[in-house]
């Protein structure tokens, strides 16, 4: 099933590329699949009168032999904090002829202006000569490992084909973290801790 979901997601990311897909969530129910797609540009995903998304639903049924498919489109509220969207934006800028360093710094600024705690961009390929190399662009704080990296850092990769060859693009974003949801849980745990005192050792 995980392989099927991976192929469905790959298809959706490519099919709705112009809408700039951030995330695809697939839920299974009794007679088919419910697919929730977060995009930067909902109108491009839906198409005139919703015809494009209906076309995607029908193609998914035929391509993956699914009896029933329901697709829901959500708009991403802060696109600049989506690693996937920003990786696609960067790829588009470079494809349209902007120098990769200028494009990377522009995307980095947009991410940080949106309130990110840190961001890191890597571009690899034959950037300035016939030899492949990787250039990195960083700003702010970025966890490198452990729970903060796995839990909070958003990551995305994409690739574009240009005249010199393939450029690989990697974007990592450490977004602003809201701890307010975690604090009540921590306080509740503390409140429920039972403290036992050994009376025999008291003086």
Structure, described:
- The protein is of the alpha+beta class.
- It folds into 2 domains: 2-75, K homology (KH) domain (GMP Synthetase, Chain A, domain 3), CATH 3.30.300; 79-174, Ribosomal protein S3, C-terminal domain (Ribosomal protein S3 C-terminal domain, 2-Layer Sandwich).
- 38% of the residues lie in helices and 29% in strands.
- A 4-stranded antiparallel β-sheet has the order 5-4-7-6, covered by helices on one side. It has a 3-stranded mixed β-sheet with strand order 1-2-3.
- Strand 1 and strand 2 form a beta hairpin.
- 26% of the residues are buried.
Which features would summarize this protein structure in a list?
3-stranded mixed beta sheet; disordered C terminus; 7 helices; Ribosomal protein S3 C-terminal domain; GMP Synthetase, Chain A, domain 3; 203 residues; 4-stranded antiparallel beta sheet
Q: Can you count the beta strands?
A: 7
Strand fraction equals 25-35%
The largest β sheet comes out as: 4 strands, antiparallel
Q: What is the terminal separation in angstroms?
A: 64 Å
Class derived from helix and strand content: alpha+beta
- Unreliable spans are 182-187, 193-203
The CATH homologous superfamily name of the largest domain equals: Ribosomal protein S3, C-terminal domain
What is the global morphology?
globular
Please state the oligomeric state of the protein chains shown: single chain
CATH overall fold name of the largest domain: Ribosomal protein S3 C-terminal domain
Q: Helical region count?
A: 7
CATH class of the largest domain: Alpha Beta
**Number of structurally distinct domains:** 2
- What's the SSE pattern? HEEHHEHHEEHEEH
């Amino acid at each position: 099933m995980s392989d099927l979901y991976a192929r469905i997601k790959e298809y959706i990311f490519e099919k709705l590329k112009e809408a700039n897909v951030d995330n695809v969530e697939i839920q299974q129910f009794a007679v088919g699949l419910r697919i929730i797609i977060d995009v930067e540009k909902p109108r491009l995903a839906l198409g005139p009168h919703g015809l494009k998304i209906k076309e995607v639903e029908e193609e998914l049924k035929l391509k993956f032999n699914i009896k029933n498919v329901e697709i829901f489109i959500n708009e991403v509220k802060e696109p600049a904090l989506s690693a996937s969207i920003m990786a696609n934006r960067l790829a588009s800028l470079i494809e349209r002829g902007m120098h990769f360093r200028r494009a990377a710094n522009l995307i980095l600024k947009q991410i940080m202006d949106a309130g990110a705690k840190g961001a890191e961009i890597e571009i690899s390929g034959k950037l300035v000569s016939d030899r492949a190399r990787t250039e990195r662009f960083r700003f702010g704080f970025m966890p490198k490992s452990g729970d903060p990296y796995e839990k909070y850092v958003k990551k995305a990769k994409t690739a574009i084909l240009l005249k010199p060859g393939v450029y690989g693009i990697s974007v990592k974003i450490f977004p602003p973290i809201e701890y307010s949801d975690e604090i009540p849980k921590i306080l509740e745990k503390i409140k429920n801790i039972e403290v036992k005192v050994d009376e025999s050792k008291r003086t």
